[in-house]
Amino acid sequence: MNDMNRFSGGHPFRKPFERVSPDQRRSIVDEAEAKLPAPAPTGEDRFAPPPDLPPARTEPPAPPSGFGRASPGFGAGAPPASFDGSEPAGSQPSSPPADEQAPPRMEAAPPTPPTPPTPSDPFGGRPTAVPMPPSFGEPEPEPVLRARPIDPPAPPAIEEPAVRKPAAEARRPEMREDPAPQTGSAASDDNGDDGEEQPESHTSTAHRAIGEVLQIAGSSSRALLDPKRLAECAKDTDPSVQLAGLVGSQIKVRVGQIWLLASVRTQTLDRTTGEIVAEIDFLGEGQEEKLTGRIRNFTRGITHYPVPGAEVYAATNADLAQVYASDGRSNIQIGKVFPTKDIRAGLYIDAMLGKHFALLGSTGTGKSTSAALILHRIVEAAPDGHIMMVDPHGEYSAAFRGTGQILDVGNLKVPYWLMNFEEHCEVFITNEGTDRQADMDILSKCLLKARSKNRMAEGMSRLTVDSPIPYLLSDLTGAIQDEMGKLDKATNTAPFLRVKTKIDEIKADPRYQFMFSGMLVADTMTEVIQRLFRLPSNGKPISIIDVSGVPSEITSTVVALLSRMVFDFAIWGRDEKTRPILLVCEEAHRYVPNEKNSDKSSVGRILSRIAKEGRKYGISLGLITQRPSDLAEGVLSQCGTIISMRLNNERDQDFVKAAMPEGARGFLDTIPALRNRECIVCGEGTAIPMRVTFDDLEERKRPASEDPSFSELWNEAGGEEEAVERIVTRWRAQHR
Ligand SMILES: Nc1ncnc2c1ncn2[C@@H]1O[C@H](COP(=O)(O)OP(=O)(O)OP(=O)(O)O)[C@@H](O)[C@H]1O
Ligand SMILES: [Mg+2]
To answer: How far, in Å, CA of 490 to CA of 511, rounded?
Structure first.
């Protein structure tokens, strides 16, 4: 059985990059231990000496970083109070709270190293006297570190606060569970859920290595994890440490003074050694906070790879707080980073909307509610935004009564003449056979004639069948009649009659009135655009287009028309620098289907085009679907941010994996195991992939998509006859 020295990360004599065989290592360790005046209390304590020994002097505060911006951010690593000028990060409270005055733990009083200039590092195993390559170096000079061991031992009374969160940091407003920024004092932070917020004070589990890097090989790096250490971590009070090393959890690897953050993708038991071999994906790196050993200034991507043998540690709540802290860009907070109970999960608005986003998940996982939550947060952050949402089930009107303009067949009023020729064909031409082209030619000729009758068209040199010029439906049918009259007797009049009959039918059908009413002939294009795109927003920056009442034969044409209007408006408004518009599409697989499910309708083409080119014109696309594998090819990969809730179907999972960045693989494998209201977010909108538990959305802000309670409703009786009558009346009147 491999002994525990393999992970002797905390040994004071071990250099970080020292290449030693396990046997050599054992002998070094044994030799070193023999020299120590007092043996470590238990075998396990070999791992690392205490991490958070405070230096007796006060180190200067770390320079303000991206995390130190004053703008409201998410995560828990947002600006320490000191960066706002209130208190230096390194300062210690002169008299710590009573509960912090506990005697130092066993580990907090390590044996004095035999030679003073070889101090133990907070996280163990790194003699600070070893010169680091310049790129690893902190701006502060090394002597600061070297001076530590010869400092007089810190009195126990101030030792504990250093292990705990520094007071200034504990005051960070973004660290709180409450999404509303908090400005409470450190004292108030010490109340309540202390156990959750400051777990590090109760245990040192996280500060001893849990394993070491075994192999670095591009996308398939591996680490050896010690099952005993993982079992110890599982008992920790810090929820992040509890999961250390498990699939989907984050671990950190030391490279000099840099911490690398990685996620665990797989675990395999090595039966010969009893150790666990884990495949890991590196996510990013940060510097080591001198005072506490935590990660700070975290950035995505890796510049320093570790060498095999590098120590692996559990990422703590405090580490994740820094990792997920806002870098100051404007963001919205949507929930909590799993497994922490207090770190806010944020999405960067510009990055997320700039490159489209997709919200995926099997039915009932909470997509619609999460979409409503995200939109509510965007609307709160940008009350003068411009969002148009296509709502095929009429769910969202309930959620946006206060902040949205609800448009349904009763008040949508989109004039038919706004359709381009392709959309006209979808509505007016029923023939799918070989003579469809003949019908189209007739419609094209007559439509141009009808449009040209408008005074607006006079003198217009480039009038086309696509020009949004109002015309009368009677002019169109009149033109068809005229053309038919010009025919000689032998010619077939069927195509003319087919088109004319269809137009007359639709004109007379009350279900089509929202679009084909004779009242809609007036030139209302400007008003329609203003109403749809919320220009100006008038306190309602989102328009909900409830297409649930639209006859199913033309729903996709209506969605195509609305989407195309967004696109054309952006194209023609390019010089005007019009405001960007977000177009959100529920049940996106219906409108942008893949080849197999495609009915070749224009909506798929326009949405695919927006996915590919919309970014350049300031259009953002938000696609919501339960069947990502049914989406048109390439559309998902155009989405810079993917928010995936649980996906039960393997094909869907594979599809999403293919569209997600490589580094997120550790997270992706958890997609089938997510709970309702949980998601994996990766891509542009977030610094690194994260698993998020969505906030509970207030009832009045939720879409009307509540799961019916069969057990409750089937125990209710009475009023059925009246209800059925009311339903039949509405059904007949075709009006809700
Ligand atoms: N963040 C949340 N806060 C409160 N309730 C939620 C939240 N997320 C989901 N729910 C609840 O979960 C249930 C299902 O959610 P939702 O209708 O959003 O799922 P869905 O994925 O859109 O389902 P479908 O695919 O059938 O449309 C609802 O009863 C909803 O109220
Ligand atoms: Mg839904």
So the answer is: 38
**pLDDT value of position 561:** 96
β-strand pairing of 542-546 with 387-391: parallel
What are the pLDDT digits (tens) for 16-42? 333 444 444 444 444 444 444 443 333
Q: Report how far ligand 1's centroid is from the alpha carbon of 73 (Å).
A: 27
What confidence tens digit (pLDDT) does each residue in 415-443 have? 999 999 999 999 999 888 888 899 999 99
Mean pLDDT of 558-570: 95
Average pLDDT, the chain: 76
Ligand 1, atom 24, lies closest to the CA of 363
Residue 260 has pLDDT above 60, yes or no: yes
Residue nearest to atom 25 of ligand 1 (CA): 363
Mutation pick for ligand 1 pocket among 367, 369, 623, 697 (CB with most ligand atoms within 8 Å): 369
**Nearest ligand to the C-alpha atom of residue 363:** 1
Residue nearest to atom 11 of ligand 1 (CA): 366
Residue ranges around ligand 1 (CB below 6 Å): 361, 363-370, 373, 626, 676-677, 694, 696-697, 702, 705-707
All structural domains of the chain, each given as residue ranges with its CATH number in brackets, are: 4-181+198-323 (no CATH), 348-413+524-713 (3.40.50.300), 417-516 (no CATH)
